[in-house]
């Protein structure tokens, strides 16, 4: 049993910054790739950023140069630093991770989401 819990969302003016956190807990042996997705009302869920177990990163074109994904493996936590926020960044942000337990059962997990609202 693994849980992912996001935090750090909120309301911010355009041009502002937020840092999202997602902490994994439970029966965790290893976490490989971790990701941030977002979904706005009436829109498809969008992959925002990925960080691999080897710390390679990838970003959606819409956030390149503004967002930074990072992780602290000792804390089983992934972060998303969001700078120069735009109204179109408004969405519920979800973390996602590939996790193995002590039983070596690899599964994909989702957090509950955290709301980010950017106003102009």
Structural class: mainly beta
Q: What fraction, in percent, of the residue positions are helical? A: under 10%
For the secondary structure, the number of strands is: 11
H-E string: EEEEEEEEEEE
General shape: elongated
Return Rg in Å.
14 Å
Outline the low-pLDDT stretches. none
- The rounded distance between the terminal residues' Cα atoms is 41 Å
Average pLDDT, rounded to a whole number, is 96
Give the biggest beta sheet: 7 strands, mixed
Number of discrete helical segments: 0
What share of the residues does DSSP label as strand, in percent? over 45%
Description:
- This protein is mostly beta strands and 120 residues long.
- It has no helices and eleven strands.
- The protein is elongated, with a radius of gyration of 14 Å.
Chain-wise SSE layout:
Layout: E1 2-7, E2 10-13, E3 18-26, E4 30-39, E5 46-51, E6 57-59, E7 67-72, E8 77-82, E9 91-100, E10 106-110, E11 114-119
Parallel strand pairs: 2-11
Antiparallel strand pairs: 1-3, 3-8, 4-5, 4-9, 5-6, 7-8, 9-10, 9-11
């Amino acid at each position: 049993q693994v849980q992912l819990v996001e935090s750090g969302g909120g309301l911010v003016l355009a041009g502002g910054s937020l840092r999202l956190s997602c902490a994994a807990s439970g029966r965790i042996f290893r976490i490989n790739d971790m990701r941030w997705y977002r979904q706005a009302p009436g829109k498809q869920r969008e992959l925002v950023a990925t960080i691999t177990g080897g710390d390679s990163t990838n970003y959606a074109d819409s956030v390149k140069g503004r967002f930074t994904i990072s992780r602290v493996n000792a804390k089983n936590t992934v972060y998303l630093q969001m700078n120069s926020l735009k109204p179109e960044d408004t969405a519920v942000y979800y973390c996602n991770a590939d996790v193995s337990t002590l039983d070596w059962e690899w599964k994909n997990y989702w957090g509950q989401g955290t709301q980010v609202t950017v106003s102009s």
